[in-house]
Amino acid sequence: MAALIVRRLFQLVPLLLGVTFVVFISLHLAPGDPASIIGGPTATAEDVESIRQKLGLDDPLFTQYFRYLGDLFQGDLGYSYQSNQSVAEAIMLRFPNTFNLSVASMIVATLIGVGAGILSAIRQNSAVDTLSTIGALAGVSIPNFWLGSMLILIFSVYWQWFPAAGFTQPPWTWAGLRELILPAITLGTGSAALIARMTRSAVLEVIRQDYIRTARAKGVKEKSVILVHCMRNAMIPVITVIGLNFGFLLGGTIITEQVFAINGVGRLMVQAIAARDYPMVQGSVLLVATLFILVNLIVDILYAWIDPRIRYE
User: Fold this and answer.
1) How far apart are CA 270 and CA 266, in angstroms?
2) Where are the domains of the chain?
3) Please, which pLDDT band fits residue 59 given cuts at 50, 70 and 90?
4) What b/e readout covers 98-134, taking b as 16+ CB neighbours within 10 angstroms?
5) Which of 18, 188, 215, 271 could link 105 by a cystine bridge, Cβ 3.0 to 4.6 Å?
6) Model confidence over 60-90: pLDDT tens digits?
7) What is the torsion angle, in degrees rounded to the nearest 10, for the CA atoms of residue 309, residue 195, residue 241 and residue 251?
8) Which 8-state DSSP code applies to residue 79?
9) Would you give the DSSP letter of residue 264?
10) Has residue 277 got a pLDDT over 80?
11) Contacts for 77 with CB less than 8 Å, ≥ 6 apart
């Protein structure tokens, strides 16, 4: 296991270098000039060229990239073109909101998805199974921006049960929890549907095994059969889906943060892309990519913890 962790951490470097290269080239090839945006509509051609020289945008593309890498290896993510704020500082100020939203969404998705998947499996082809299948299809199909808008309209505007937007309170307080509920449901619904279908399939496969029939024949309570004997062996593919979805949630909060006006990394990224703020976009994507890779490493470690038969050579 220690060798696996060390090897994966070493693999992190070339993966992140690849991410930085793709993002850097994509941003610079996309239409739009940061210097023109910073200068504004009244800027002259001389003003725009002066800004380009100041930002180093008039240098060859690969010169700019290797300069960025040199700063990155020194722990410097650069400074925002728009606010002149440190990119690392700006991201860290907003990352707690994104992380809290992702964790809350993953809790919602896991509780709903695993619960619905188990019920569907043990009551296969029943009304519960049919409703779960319909719910999973709806969860995957409904866009986040529509679902979020409807939740705000119903629970914030009409009934006034929850705040409509923003994170202003710590998430461990009741006020902060109320602010998290609607965004977490909005973001977690799609993941809940995927987890439910995977859980159903995994439980159905395991529940037909000989050791499950043996446990029932020995008089083990059905609750113990499902939760102890069945679920532990069915959790490997479920954990894979949960881990991957958590990684996607960390990088996929953009729409939800926009709908609920949450000042997180996703919203920061949208604003930076609109302003062609290259350092801010690159820093945000680099953070999301790093977290995604680390989440996958944690999933691999959980495999061996859940099933001791798994060994990494």
Assistant:
1) 6
2) 96-306
3) confident
4) bbbbbbbbbebbbebbbebbbbbbbeeeeeebeebbe
5) 188
6) 888 888 988 888 888 888 888 888 888 889 9
7) -150
8) B
9) S
10) yes
11) 71, 86, 87, 88, 91, 279, 282, 283, 286
User: Model confidence at 234, in pLDDT bands (50, 70, 90)?
Assistant: confident
Q: What share of residues in the chain are helix, strand, coil (percent, to 5)?
A: 75, 0, 20
Give the DSSP H/E element, type plus range, for residue 293.
helix 278-306
Structure tokens of 268? 């920061």
CA distance 278 to 268: 12
Q: What is the mean pLDDT of the chain?
A: 83
Amino acid at 94: R
Amino acid at 114: V
Question: CA separation (Å) from 29 to 61, 64, 124, 278?
Answer: 10, 13, 52, 12
CATH 1.10.10.10 applies to domain 96-306: no
- Three-state secondary structure call for residue 86: strand
